[in-house]
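Minutes, methods subgroup
Present: GH (chair), OT, SY

1. OT presented the first of two proteins processed in the latest run. Sequence and structure tokens recorded below as shown on screen.
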Amino acid sequence: MRGLTILSLAFLLPAIAGCTPTPAEQARIDQRQATERADLTKALRGLTPEKPTQCIGQYQTRQVTAYGPTIVYTISPRLKYVSETQGGCETIGQRGRNDILVTRTTTGQLCAGDIAQTVDRVSGFFTGSCSFGPFVPYRPAK
């Protein structure tokens, strides 16, 4: 039995090690995350966060952009809603990608906990999914 455990570990360890990014890959990941944070800061410049809400109206949104796991719904230049997702929808709005966010709702609202999917607008294939967190409104400071 012990021999089987050691044999299992011999096969598992290389597989686990293969999941660890190389230093070059980690540097690219860190750079992408820094760029996403900088772009998010720029998108929210001049706006102040307010008390989170659980739902927003789906049809008033003019633009949806992902900054890593953070999705920004632009209603107007003076109102944006920010939702932290559990990841999986980072490809919407990325350069070189044709992904769009697809949601299904019968109420006309997007709510925390709802699941969205990303779809390649050219091929129609699903490319990811994520779950919304609360929606934080950002408006100009009073």
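2. SY then presented the second protein from the same run.
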Amino acid sequence: MSTEQHPDSEQQHDGAGAPDGPRPRRLTQAAAIAAIEGLALVGVGLYMLIIGLMGRPHQPRTAETGGVTMIVLGLIPLLAARGLFLRRRWSRGPALITQILALPVAWMFLTANGPAIPVGIAVAVAAVTGLVLLVNPATAQALGVRGAGGTDAP
């Protein structure tokens, strides 16, 4: 049933299911983290693609394929970031998955030697911060996410 049929509803929703009103800062921050992660993936993908096309690696086809894959994977958090910024309920899932998948990547960098360790720290901080922001009840409420049993998330 729509919110027009329930005048006692605490929140008014737009046509896409997101509540009206000001966007919580946590939601904007989560969107920013997802966007930065997406841009980083696209950037790495473009670098790999260019290097592959220039023929510098020993296996250019592998670099090209990896570059295209990274670019496509980067689109997921970018779309999730846009959805979070526009307060679309569907965007929380892809954003959460992106943060969860970033944790093993961070671990890989952290267990490497040398200059990869600061990258691992940055990825870990972004992933954990993103997870905290996305599971926050205020974020769920801002996106109109309902809890178990169809109740509003606390």
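Chair's summary of item 2: Confidence is low (pLDDT under 50) at residues 1-15.
Next meeting: continue with the remaining queue.
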